[in-house]
Amino acid sequence: MTPFSPKSSCKLLAVAAFLIVGASADCNNKYCSRSEASTLSLRTTTPTQDYFVPNGDFECGLTPWTVQVPDSAITYFIGAPGHTSSNSFQVKFTPPSARTELGVSARIISAPVRVIPNTPYQLSFWTYFDNQRAGFIGVQFNNNPVYTIDATDHGYGGNFTLNTVNYTPKNDTVTIKFEYLFGGASGVASLDRIDSVTFAPVQ
């Protein structure tokens, strides 16, 4: 193991700053993988602290995200446009709904993100809804529902819109889950997108 030094600290802090401003990642570099080459939290001196959601901008396909689709009326894909990069995660609903789980037609679940327990964090992500009745997206941390967003909250069509959710984890890892609900049998054909997912300590 390489000893921790002020020089390495500055390098890690620079990487953290790079990620916070939302710069796009190259699929050939370490930010798209689930490697342990983590960045440094500004609230800790531990150099192995995660500071981002792996592949949160979907520039490297789906890995390491997990997708669940209980509803056969759903198709999903990674593609253009993205918020600031090339791609986003997109879910297309073509009614009628065939089957949902408690109203949920699709889910996408992050890889575990290491965090500092009892420290306030903020989830940031961008959404797009193509019509006013395009269902809504729910957010869970470690299977606990905390937030929902729909087209009437920020509008629909046009550009992506920003969502932020504050959360103080009790454990040392957090899994982030996005659930897509389109209204079941009464839903209309819709396309919803998410992109630029980050999870960082509140500064």
UniProtKB/TrEMBL annotation:
Keywords attached to this Swiss-Prot or TrEMBL record, sorted alphabetically, are:
Hydrolase, Signal
Q: What is this protein called?
A: CBM-cenC domain-containing protein
Q: Which InterPro entries match?
A: CenC_carb-bd, Galactose-bd-like_sf
* Ion transport among keywords: no
- What is the organism of origin for this protein? Xylaria flabelliformis
**Record has DNA repair as a keyword:** no
Give the signal peptide, or none.
Answer: 1-25
Gene Ontology terms, MF aspect: hydrolase activity, acting on glycosyl bonds
Q: Where is the CBM-cenC domain?
A: 54-180
